[in-house]
Amino acid sequence: MERKMTFRQLPKYEPEKRSEIYLALNENPYDFPDEILEKVFKNLDTVKLKIYYDSPSDELLEALACYTGQPKKRISIGNGADEIIYDIFLMFPDMKFYVCPPTYSCYSIFASATGVKLNYVPLIGEMYEKLNLDKLTKVLDENSVLFLPNPNNPTGQLFEKSDVEMLLSTGALIVLDEAYYEFSNVSYVELLDKFDNLIVIRTFSKAFSLAAQRIGYIMANEELIEYYNSLRLPYNVSYISQQLALAALENLAYFKKRTLRIVQERERMKEILSKNGFKLTDSKANFIFILAQDDEARCIVEKLERQNITVRKFEQGIRISVGKSEENDLVISTLIGKSEV
Questions:
Q1: Where does the signal sequence lie (predicted)?
Q2: What is the rounded average pLDDT of the residues 81-86?
Q3: Would you list the domain boundaries of the chain?
C-alpha cells in the first residue's frame, strides 16, 4: 500500500531574481580581495580538508576574542548568522518570542519552520525609529525572547543603549542582531558584563564580503554558549570558511577602508535624495531606506527595474543596498530624473 505523506505549508525565503545591478540583499559591492584570497588558498593545509575540522577552531576563537574584546568562552560560530538565529528558536521552545516590525524577514520564516508562535510589537514613530517601550516592558518577562536588529533591518536606524538596557531589565532574553555593526561602529556587546540575558550576533557576510562562505558568530554568557554548542550541528562551519574569516580579521585595516567608502556613499545618497523630495530614514547600515507606500513605492521599483536595478520593497518603503559609486549614481539619476553626482 502506497503511503501518502503530508507536509506543513511553510513560508519560503525567496530572494529577488538576480539582475545586472543587484541591490536587494545588502551584499558588499566589493569582492573579497584577490591578494588575500590567493594567500589563503596558498597556505591551506590539505590534511585539514579531509578531516572533520574543529568548529570553531581555537585560532578563530582567539582572533574573534581580540576583535570583539570578549573572552573566548563567550564566543561561538554558526553557518551564517541565520543558523544561529534558527538555533535560538530551537533552544527555547517553551518561551514566548517577540519581534518589532518592520524587521528581518527570516525571524518569521524560522519561527514557522520550528513551530514557534511569533508575537509582534511594531516600531512606532513617523520613520519607525522607536521601540514601543510601554508595550514591550509590559509583555516581556523571564519567559520571553526578543529579536532586535541593531542597526535595524530594513530601516537602518540604531536603537538607544538606554532603551536596550530597559528591555534587558525585564529579564527577557534580548537577542541583538548586529549584522551591520561595522557600518555604524556602534555595539552594545559590553552589556554582556552587566546582563546574563543578552545574546549578540554578528556576521562576516556584510563588511567582509564573505556572504557565500556562511560564517557568523554569537556572543553571550558562558552558560548560553555551552547550551548553543550542545544544540548546533557539529562541524557547522567549514575549514575554508574559517580560514577566510581569519584572513579578514588579520587585514582589518583593508576592510575598514572599504567600509568607510560604503558609509560615505550611503550618506551621499541620503543627502541627495532627501534634497530632492524623498523621505529617508537615518540608516546606519550598508543600505538606505526610502519611506514610500502603494503607488509611490511601485513607481520607484518600476523606475529602477527599467534600468536593470533590483531592490527590495517592503510595506513601509524601499530598501536599496549601497553599491559601487557608479551604481549609486545610476540609482540617484533614475529616481530624481537628472544627474546630480
A1: none
A2: 98
A3: 21-31+253-336, 45-250
- Cell numbers found for residue 254: 583593508
Residue that has been written with the C-alpha cell 559609486 in this structure: 325
100-112 pLDDT per residue, tens: 999 999 999 999 9
Q: Is the peptide bond before 11 cis (omega within 30 degrees of 0)?
A: no
Angle in degrees, 0-180, between the axes of helices 239-250 and 34-42, rounded to the nearest 10: 130
User: Does the N-terminal peptide bond of residue 151 adopt cis geometry, omega within 30 degrees of 0?
Assistant: yes
Cis before 56? omega within 30 = yes
Contacts of 106 (CB under 8 A, 6+ apart): 13, 82, 85
Distance CA 5, CA 16 (A): 31
Nearest alpha-carbon partner for 174 in 147, 196, 156, 201: 147
* Residues 48, 239 contacting (CB under 8 angstroms): yes
Report pLDDT digits (tens) over 54-68.
Answer: 999 999 999 999 999
Q: Was domain 45-250 assigned CATH 3.40.640.10?
A: yes
Spell out the residues 6+ positions from residue 266 whose beta carbon is closer than 8 angstroms to its own. Answer: 183, 283, 285, 286, 287, 288, 322
User: Could you say which DSSP state residue 130 is in?
Assistant: B
